[in-house]
Amino acid sequence: MTQQKRLAMDYDDIFHFFKIENGDVVCKVKANRKNPGDILGVVNYEGYKKIRHNGKYLFAHRIVYLLTHGYCPEVIDHINGDKGDNRPENLRAVNFKENRYNSLTPSNNTSGAKGIHQLKDGYGFQASIKYNGKRKFLGTFKLLEEAQEFLDLAREMVHGKFANSGVRV
Question: Which of 55, 65, 101, 150 could potentially form a cystine with 159 if both were Cys, beta carbons 3.0 to 4.6 Å apart?
Answer without folding.
Answer: 101
